[in-house]
Structure formats: structure tokens, C-alpha cells
Amino acid sequence: MLRRILILVASVFAASVVVFAFMAVLPGDPAQVALGVNATPELVERTRAEFGLDRPLVTQYLDWMGGVLSGDFGTSYVTREAIGPQLVDRLGVTLWLVGAGMLVALLIAMPLGTIAAVRHRRPSGTAVSALSQVGVAIPAFLAGIILVQVFAVRLGWLPSGGWTPPVRDPVEWLRGLILPALSLGLVQGAVLTRYVRTAVLDVQREDYLRTARSKGLRPYPALVRHGLRNAALPVLTVLGLQLTTLLVGAVVIERVFVLPGIGSMLLDAVAARDLLTVQAIVLVLVAAVLFVNFCVDVLYTVLDPRLRRSW
């Protein structure tokens, strides 16, 4: 565990260097962008000194990382507001959306993928496989538009967009979260269904499962008691990848449903060429991806006792 934690910390620092380097080599002067095209050269130089852009790049990186480690992501070049509090507020919205989308994907994929594997080459299993193929082909934003058209415009059951904090009105918060979560979860659930089906099919061909059935266990109890834990290992890898995909997909979904998440904040910062804000958001997203991979590695040792014995 200590070794994996050290790898995680080293990876985050390496990612911070890469992100800072990419932002540093981008064309354009943040001070000039913040002041506008009519600013005088003297004012631009003073603003560069105020932002700390006239210092060496190594000094700028060390100051930035020192602030990040203390929770200070700096001040926006455009709005002159602290970036950290905005990140915390926006990240909360995105985490609710990604968590709800992943929950929807799991509730869809685990039972349907198992049914498609157990009833392989039967009409019901074939129908589930075909339905999952259709779901894979539909982009998340298109699914969101269809859901809005059906449940918000025609039926009027749910709001078409907007965000209500859960502490203010839990009911409205839940109503506003359903459609975005379904938009993310339906597509990812279709993808995950394919992997669950493949993993369960591979487990069903193993000798230990045949032995369990030869002792009198029915197919489903034998699969639950002896097969699903082994089938969870390859699915867990895909699940970690899908969490990162949900983070990326949330950028588009937040635009479709007008959600004030970190994806909307990123797009606004890119449009305004607020490089320091973009730098902070990208670092947070990269750190989130690395942390998900770390959690997947840890869960491997929880699910597979052979890895614990190998130590």
C-alpha cells in the first residue's frame, strides 16, 4: 500500500510538471488577454509583474505548486477571484453527476450483462446483447437531448436543466439530477454490459464452476457463490476506465443541462483564455484519474487473495 501511495504522489507531481509546461508554451500573453487589446505596454508589464509572469518558469512552478499543496490555486487572470473556492463548488456538482451516472451504469450492466452471459445463444440473451450494441452507438449528449424531449418537454415530469443544491431543496435537487445521470449512465451502462457479459462467459467455462454445478448447485447460485467474484476482476479494470470517461463526458452533459460543474468552468476558462484556471482544473482532473487508478489497484488486492499471498 505504501508503495502504491508513493507511486500516486510521484505521478501527481509528474502530471503537474507536464500541465504547467503545456500552459507555459501556449501562445498569447495572459496579461494582455486580461487587459484587452487597447492596453498600453506599460500597463501590460505592470500586470505581468502583478501576476508573477515576469519571473523564471521554475520559480512560477514552485510558487504555484506550493499554493496548490496548501489549497490555494491562485487568482483568476480574468475575474480576479480566487480559483480554489470555485473549484470546490463546481467539483461538488460534477462528483454528484458522475457518481449518479456510475450508479445508473452499474444498475443496468450487472444484471443485464449476467443475463446475457447465462442465457447465451438464447433469444433473451441475444436481445440484451443487441440492445447494448445500440446503446454503445448513442452519444451521451444525444441521449440527453432525447430524454429532455420526452420527459421534460412532452411529459413535463422533470426539469430540462438547472441545478438546485441538495441542502436547499433535496427534492428539486434529485429531480434535476435524474436526466443528466441517465444520459451518462445509459451509454456507459451499455458499454459495461458488454464487458460484464464477456467476463461472466469466461468464468462459466472454468473447471471450478463446472465442479460446483456437478455437485448439485443450480446455474445462478453456482455463479453467485463461485463465479462473480472472479468475473469482477476484469470488470473492475473497465470500471476504472469508465469513471474517467464519465468525467470527460460530464463536460458535455453539463452544457446540455446547464449544470454549474467543473466541465462548464473549464469551457468558460478556455473561452476566456484564463490559463491559470485551466491549469488548475486540468490538474484536478488528472489527479482524479490517477486516484481512480490507485483505488482500482487497491481493490484488486481486496478481491483477489492471490495478490495478498504473493506479497
Automatic annotation (TrEMBL):
* Its membrane topology: Multi-pass membrane protein
Could you list this entry's UniProt keywords, alphabetically sorted: Cell membrane, Membrane, Transmembrane, Transmembrane helix, Transport
Kindly list the GO molecular function terms attached to this UniProt entry.
dipeptide transmembrane transporter activity
Matches recorded under InterPro entries: BPD_transp_1_N, MetI-like, MetI-like_sf
- Residues annotated as transmembrane: 5-26, 95-118, 130-153, 173-196, 235-258, 278-303
Question: Could you confirm whether the keyword Manganese appears in this record?
Answer: no
Assigned GO CC terms? plasma membrane
Q: What is this protein called?
A: ABC transporter permease
